Amino acid sequence: MTVASETMAAPIAAPIDVAVGILMKPNGDVLLGQRPEGKPYAGYWEFPGGKVEGGESILDALKREFLEELGIEVISAEPWCGVQHVYPHAHVRLHFYISREWRGEPQSLEGQAFAWQGSVEVEPLLPATIPLIEWIDKLRLPL
């Protein structure tokens, strides 16, 4: 007979799928955005993206988010990696795509700051973003 302990930890919520895009210029610079006021981790820097809606593919979610947040049309993007992270407010499964082809210039449509970065100098960085910075350095194309 098995007896359940009364001190069992609460189950972790199912992860929320998030599409995240890394816009990379030919010189290797990448775009980071600052989370706006009113959102968890406001003021922290991250790669742009957002939650995947029901019935939406990751790539479709990425294209929608970039159009809504930055006013740009992603022409092509390649899946790069996936990372799960448990924040105090949410358990997220981040699907990272790299895009080197888009139409338009990024605009601040949600009032967020953004910055093109070669060696990343903005801070603070969102915790799930930190390990990716080193990985991205290995992907940069030579000048």
Automatic annotation (TrEMBL):
It is an enzyme of class 3 (hydrolase). Residues 14-139 form the Nudix hydrolase domain. Its cofactor is Mg(2+). InterPro entries: MutT-like, Nudix_hydrolase, NUDIX_hydrolase-like_dom_sf, NUDIX_hydrolase_CS, NUDIX_hydrolase_dom. It comes from the Bacteria. It catalyses: 8-oxo-dGTP + H2O = 8-oxo-dGMP + diphosphate + H(+); 8-oxo-GTP + H2O = 8-oxo-GMP + diphosphate + H(+). The keyword Magnesium applies. Its EC number is 3.6.1.55. This is 8-oxo-dGTP diphosphatase. It comes from Herbaspirillum rhizosphaerae.
